Write a sequence for this structure.
């Protein structure tokens, strides 16, 4: 019987994880709502309704999640805010994964003093709380455009990925297939990109999923402090900021809408990440068990 491919094993294991499927379904629903939802809304996310100025309306048939202090529909702003928050989360994740993967691969493959120096740099950066480091950089640049927010979050959140990839590369570089590649004359660059990185993708995939959640939370915190996405552009973070104004303290829905969306999204991403980790671990264990069984059969013969 033909053996299934590794990714087929991972997919089968993942499908068996009910909590992971639930997280994936929730995440897909949020992404779908953020993508197509605003097209069906009759309201503008930024236009001020002067008739409702300073009088936030509770949820009703006309405004399902109520309105804010400026008379803007809260559901519409939440949908547009989901676009911004998810865009920042995913894009900053790509930046962090690319930088962290390359840095960790080079460090692990080089070894020796180069690895020691590179890891001390990572340790030095990790010694500072990432959130406060981002705030410092944001304040120094005094520029809060969407591109700057993405780059700052991405370029200051790669250190954990780098350590994961380095540990995996250190384990892989002593394997037989790497020694065989060296014996055949493969250079360091080819070994890293053709042999080490493809086999080190498991922790990277799991880390990528969790990094998205961290980035969304970081963006929300920055926007809440006025250092992220700037008004009137809606994001879940600055929606929370608006909700805590003294005149909005009695409008509980202004806090619940963005707050619950952040919590639900982070929970869904955590469930997906955990499901991927379990699927990869079980698939690798099955591959190892199969390989061991084949070896024992050959030795017995």
């Amino acid at each position: 019987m033909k053996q299934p491919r590794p990714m087929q094993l991972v997919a089968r294991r993942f499908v068996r994880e009910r909590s992971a499927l639930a997280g994936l379904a929730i995440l897909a629903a949020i992404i779908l709502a953020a993508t197509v939802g605003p097209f069906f809304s009759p309201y503008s996310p930024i236009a001020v309704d002067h008739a409702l100025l300073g009088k936030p309306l509770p949820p009703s048939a006309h405004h399902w999640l109520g309105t804010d202090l400026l008379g803007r529909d809260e559901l519409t702003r939440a949908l547009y805010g989901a676009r911004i928050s998810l865009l920042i989360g995913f894009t900053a994740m790509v930046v962090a994964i690319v930088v962290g993967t390359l840095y960790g691969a080079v460090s692990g493959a080089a070894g020796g003093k180069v690895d020691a120096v590179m890891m001390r740099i990572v340790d030095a950066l990790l010694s500072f709380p990432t959130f406060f480091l981002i705030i410092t950089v944001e304040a120094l640049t005094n520029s809060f455009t969407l591109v700057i927010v993405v780059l700052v979050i991405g370029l200051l959140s790669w250190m954990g990925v780098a350590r994961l990839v380095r540990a995996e590369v250190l384990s892989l570089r002593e394997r037989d297939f790497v020694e065989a590649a060296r014996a055949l004359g493969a250079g360091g660059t080819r070994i890293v990109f053709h042999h080490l990185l493809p086999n080190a993708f498991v922790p990277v995939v799991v880390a990528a999923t969790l990094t998205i959640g961290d980035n969304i939370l970081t963006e929300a915190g920055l926007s809440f402090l006025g250092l992220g996405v700037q008004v009137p552009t809606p994001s879940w973070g600055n929606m929370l900021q608006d909700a805590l104004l003294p005149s909005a303290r009695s409008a509980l829905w202004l806090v619940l809408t963005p707050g619950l969306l952040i919590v639900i999204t982070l929970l869904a991403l955590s469930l997906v990440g955990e499901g991927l980790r379990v699927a990869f671990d079980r698939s690798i264990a099955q591959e190892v068990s199969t390989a061991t069984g084949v070896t024992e059969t050959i030795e017995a013969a």
